[in-house]
Amino acid sequence: MAAFFSKNKKLILAILFTALCLFIWRVGVHIRLPFVEFSQGTTSTSIFGFLDIFTGGALQSFSILALGISPYINASIIVQLLQMDIVPQFAEWAEEGEAGKEKLNRWTRYIALFLAFVEGLALIVGYKVSYNYQFFQYVPNTEYDIFTYIYMALVVTAGSAFVLWLADQMSAHGVGNGASMMITAGIIASFPTMMTSLWEYFLGSKTGTYYTDGVLQWQGILYYVLVLLLFVAIIVGVVWMEGLVRKIPIQYANRPAASRFAGNQDSNIPLKLNSASVIPVIFASTLLSFPTTIINFLENSGKTVSEWWTIVFSFKKPIGFAIYIILIFIFSFFYSFLQINPDKISDNLKKQNAYIPGVKPGEATAQYISKVLFKITLLGATYLAILAALPMIVGLIFTNLPSSVQIGGTSLMIVVGVAIETFKQIKTATQSQDYRGFM
Question: Of the candidates 104, 46, 32, which has an alpha carbon nearest to the alpha carbon of residue 75?
Answer without folding.
Answer: 104
